[in-house]
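haha ok so turns out i had the wrong file open the whole time. this is the CORRECT one, sorry everyone. sequence first:
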Amino acid sequence: MGTGPGLFCLRSAVCVRHPGDDRVHAGIYFYNSHPIYKVDVMGTVVYKRERDDFFVYGVDDSTGVINCLCWKSDLLKKEEDPSKSAGKHSNGAQGGFNLEAELIKLRQIQQNHCHLELGELLRVRGSVKTSRQQREIMASTYYKVNDPVMAAQIAWMMEVPQLYRQCYDKVLQPTTESDSPVSSLKKATDILQDFFQQNSVTKFRPYDVQDLLLPLISRQPQTDSDEGAVAGPSGVQQLRQLLKEALKVLEEQGIVYHKVKSQDEVYRVTPQDKDLFMAVKDIIREDSKREKYAEKGCHVLHILSAVRQRYSLNVSKAALELVLKSLECNSDIVSTSDNHYTAF
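then structure:
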């Protein structure tokens, strides 16, 4: 979700909850169709309340006042005043480095930056919540800003309007699923995977599955002589490019791979490659008997190296992990840790 400056959570006239179900959109606000989940605010502390575990600061950034709930760190929860502790250890190591004294100094610096008084400048980032029908910020980061000449505030006041002009004041035009090239690629990979699974395809060439993606390519008006074909060279190029990208995604996921690099471009379908399954199983069965791997089993990188040496140089780690997962589901092997496998 987007992150916007403080104006989003303070102007109730322009920042509203989505009119839909609160269970789906809880904590999400909208400004010109931009979803706002987290905000970044800098303003003056005009109200303060302290509890054992947190501070509540009322922050005024000149557009309004909003409560900021700031949780204390474990160091701030300690009762002893760090300034008093510093006095105890100031003479502990004269002329030398005193680690305990330095840690106390760091704690004091942290406390000074997180413990603000009225009139001081606070920078806070976090998610927007609604409590008792009032918006507040659940701070993930907050600290005091030392700004004696107001340089930080001036820079902030110049930055925020520019952000609005360049981004947030422009109405967000959501793209439909049909307009998104990512959705077309996702559909293409789903079509190919379904085809491989339903037809138990073990190997194929790109032109064997190219026509499956025809429905995803925008068509031009067809004539009687080219029924069923994509009209024009641009359509053919789109089809080939989409197929190329889909096969690349499937390769990265380990679903397909080249056993041998050749001009034919023959792809193997990993879940249907029984020879690959047998090779992996034999490697684990044989090597897990060796003394080196008897206790923990074979590491996945060792298995990958052995598969590339004995079966194919082009097997990827992603493809191997699919095979290992399937073998383990079939109780052919068992994982002894996240990355080690042994045979029964």
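Residues 112 and 144 are 8 Å apart (CA to CA).
again sry for the mixup
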